[in-house]
């Protein structure tokens, strides 16, 4: 039996993630960071929406596709540079994912939809785009926040948490509050939410 379009696309996406030279060690095994990240994204999607469409599953899986190729320091290390970097990444990752979808047998309409979700178009009006944003925020809080809080001052952390919270849905908020965190991380989250 030949693989479905979905299976082909996921295999290509995961093969690309596996090329990430940034390695993390989990449960005694080395894994490419972007493959780990995409697995976390898929895991949180299953918690948020276990009946998600293939299109949303592909967008979730490809959200950081080949991100390591464009490092943050390729742009000015200021707020403008950050936004330019993020905008370029969303466009590029959407284009790469759309081509993978086409190469795997999806229609141009489906491929465009995957790209649009990755770009987070119509975030507050599109339930799938909102789910993708919720999942990305949950993965940040679960997988990246502990390290992030070590690298930044408290005021910046609280500000980022407020912005993250503002992008999430009520369901995302509920899930975020159930994520196990260190006492210090939980204290920062509570502080950020005091003014929201």
Distance between the termini: 53 Å
Percent helix, as a range, is 55-70%
Strand order of the largest sheet: 1-2
Rg (C-alpha, Å) = 17 Å
Q: How many β-strand stretches?
A: 2
Average pLDDT level = 91
Give the biggest sheet.
2 strands, antiparallel
Shape: globular
Q: Low-confidence spans: pLDDT under 50, at least 5 residues?
A: none
Beta-strand portion reads under 5%
Strand/helix succession: HEEHHHHHHHH
Structural class: mainly alpha
Number of helical regions? 9
List keywords for this structure.
single chain, 196 residues, mainly alpha, 2 strands, globular, two-stranded antiparallel ribbon
Please provide a written account of the structure:
With 196 residues, this protein is mainly alpha-helical. The chain has nine helices and two strands. It has helices at 5-17, 33-48, 54-62, 79-103, 108-118, 127-151, 154-167, 170-177, 183-194; strands at 23-26, 29-32. Strands 1-2 form a two-stranded antiparallel ribbon. Helix 1 packs across helix 4. The model has no long low-confidence stretch (mean pLDDT 91).
Short description:
By secondary structure, the chain is mainly alpha-helical. It has helices at residues 5-17, 33-48, 54-62, 79-103, 108-118, 127-151, 154-167, 170-177, 183-194, and strands spanning 23-26, 29-32.
Topology (elements, then pairings):
Layout: H1 5-17, E1 23-26, E2 29-32, H2 33-48, H3 54-62, H4 79-103, H5 108-118, H6 127-151, H7 154-167, H8 170-177, H9 183-194
Antiparallel strand pairs: 1-2
Helix pairs in contact: 1-3, 1-4, 2-3, 2-6, 3-5, 4-5, 6-7, 6-8, 7-9
């Amino acid at each position: 039996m030949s693989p479905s379009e979905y299976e082909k696309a996921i295999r290509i996406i995961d093969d690309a993630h596996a090329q990430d030279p940034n390695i993390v060690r989990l449960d005694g095994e080395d894994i490419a960071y972007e493959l780990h990240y995409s697995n976390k994204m898929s895991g949180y999607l299953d918690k948020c929406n276990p009946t998600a469409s293939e299109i949303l599953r592909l967008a979730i899986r490809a959200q950081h596709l080949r991100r390591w190729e464009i490092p943050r320091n390729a742009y000015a290390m200021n707020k403008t540079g950050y936004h330019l970097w993020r905008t370029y990444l969303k466009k590029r990752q959407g284009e790469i994912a759309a081509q993978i979808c086409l190469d795997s047998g999806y229609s141009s309409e489906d491929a465009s939809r995957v790209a649009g979700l990755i770009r987070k178009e119509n975030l507050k009006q599109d339930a799938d785009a909102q789910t993708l944003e919720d999942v990305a925020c949950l993965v940040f809080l679960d997988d990246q926040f502990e390290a992030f809080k070590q690298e930044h001052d408290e005021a910046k952390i609280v500000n980022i948490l407020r912005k993250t919270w503002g992008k999430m849905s009520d369901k995302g908020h509920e899930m975020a509050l159930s994520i196990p965190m260190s006492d210090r991380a939980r204290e920062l989250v509570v502080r950020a939410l005091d003014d929201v």
